[in-house]
Design goal:
Catalytic activity: Catalyzes the rearrangement of -S-S- bonds in proteins
Number of strands: 15
Strand content: 15-25%
Oligomer: single chain
EC number: 5.3.4.1
CATH superfamily of the largest domain: Glutaredoxin
Distance between the termini: 66 Å
GO molecular function, one term: protein disulfide isomerase activity
CATH architecture of the largest domain: 3-Layer(aba) Sandwich
Main location: endoplasmic reticulum
Subcellular location: Endoplasmic reticulum lumen
CATH class of the largest domain: Alpha Beta
Shape: globular
């Protein structure tokens, strides 16, 4: 049989076309990114996002695909699970900008009030459950907790715009409700009332839970939602009163333009490092001082901190210090056991840890180093119990000034992003949506 080379070439091109288009099909729940839409879909989004930087020929990327798609399916409507093909010539510049050196590399983008998202490498399990659990923690919380003391202020502020209120038995906002607040960030104010707030319940005449209502604004009466407490139905209901936000609210953009204009004419004064936070030279003294409280440890470098670090330190002292007791210590004064136990590193940047000595847990601050608002949100999450805590390991008292040898089971230094181990299988535990991710 004689083969027509033109026909063979055409058939080959048709068969190879799907491979050239990338690893995820158009029907995949994974958001497809390119260099053209990366900024719009990720950097300007109000939603938290996880992005896989991959190459179609990468075996470990293919192994990750089922779990990654399952994570995308489970996070639908809550946060973005996206991917970009770094083997595509048009996307290589974007991948280079984020320092991608191995595949798959997964990065998490969390919106910041400054207009720029905070970015961190995802170091968790390469499973659907691992990705889902971590990404849920990154969903911004724009839900205001309402009680008898704050309800009047909540109703008076922005009275002409719509407000949504959820009456529930839960003490903290669910991922679904937080995601709904993100959808309408800047156009609708979201609040939550717990069933124990009897005065507020009486004010609104609420007797069953959950109850979801929208106050259209002004003197208009509230409208109660009578559908299932699912994202799609609640989204359509709120759309009757306001449109979802697209990217950053216009007010935020105007503020940024105003600040950039003023800064060009006169540079802001250089802040001075405030060293009035009392020092905590040892774990025992630190824990004893904290007692039953949640305390915050600010670990500073030996050298003078940078401008952004100074701004952060001043904010800790002047704005947040009254929420929790704050303590400062140079990293060089901490024992190796202390550094290891709180996952601290030798660094020229300020590191922050909140801890409860009584309950034996700590939380590391990993937000945007230049964003005061990020720190406020972090503090609020700790107060409301919405942030994942790490158990504090037992520390041995120092018996000599000679630093001990590193523990045999000490974690190895971080390496550049590499391929996911082949033996890791897609998570079976995320084969269906967990109720708390979907229902209120």
């Amino acid at each position: 049989m004689v083969h027509n080379p033109v026909v063979v070439a055409a058939l080959s091109a048709a068969l190879l076309a799907p491979l050239a288009a990338g690893m995820y099909s158009s029907n995949s729940p994974v958001l497809q990114l390119t260099s053209k839409n990366f900024a719009e879909k990720i950097l300007k989004s109000n939603h938290a996002s996880v992005v896989e930087f991959y190459a179609p020929w990468c075996g470990h990327c293919k192994n990750l695909k089922p779990a990654y798609e399952k994570a995308a399916e489970n996070m639908k409507g809550l946060a973005q699970v996206a991917a970009i093909d770094c083997d595509e010539d048009a996307n290589k510049r974007t991948c280079q900008e984020y320092g991608i050196q191995g595949f798959p590399t997964i990065k998490v983008f969390k919106p910041g009030k400054s207009g720029k998202p905070s970015i961190q490498d995802y170091q968790g399990a390469r499973t659907a459950k691992g990705i889902v659990d971590f990404l849920i923690e990154q969903i911004p919380n724009h839900v205001t907790r309402i009680n008898s003391k704050t309800v009047d202020g909540f109703l008076k502020e922005k009275n002409e715009t719509a407000k949504a209120i959820l009456f529930t038995t839960k003490g903290v906002a669910t991922p679904l409700y937080k995601a709904l607040a993100v959808d309408f960030f800047g156009s609708v104010t979201f609040g939550q009332v717990r069933d124990k707030e009897t005065e507020v319940l009486k004010l609104f005449g609420v007797e069953k839970f959950p109850t979801f209502l929208v106050l259209p604004g002004g003197s208009a009466e509230g409208v109660i939602y009578d559908g299932d407490m699912k994202k799609d139905g609640m989204l359509k209901f709120v759309k009757k009163f306001a449109q979802p936000a697209s990217g950053k609210p216009k007010d935020d953009e105007k503020k940024e333009e105003s600040s950039s204009t003023s800064s060009s004419s006169a540079p802001p004064p250089r802040p001075t490092f405030d060293s009035t936070i009392p020092e905590a030279p040892s774990l025992e003294a630190f824990a004893a001082t904290c007692g039953n409280k949640i305390c915050v440890l600010v670990v500073t470098p030996e050298s003078a901190p940078s401008l952004s670090a100074q701004e952060k330190a001043n904010f800790y002292v002047n704005h947040v210090k009254q929420t929790f007791p704050f303590f400062q210590v140079q990293g060089s004064k901490l024992s190796p056991e202390f550094m290891k136990g709180f996952a601290l590193e030798k660094s020229d940047q300020i590191q922050v840890r909140a801890l409860s000595a009584k309950r034996g847990w700590y939380v590391a601050y990993s937000g945007d180093s230049a964003s005061d608002e990020e720190l406020k949100i972090w503090i609020d999450k700790i107060k409301m119990g919405e942030i994942q805590k790490v158990k504090i390991p037992q520390f041995e008292k120092e018996e000599s000034t000679t630093p001990p040898e590193p523990a045999k089971d000490a974690p190895a230094p971080e390496e550049p992003a590499k391929e996911v181990p082949k033996e890791e299988e897609p998570a079976k535990e995320a084969t269906k949506e967990t109720p708390e991710h979907e229902e209120l």
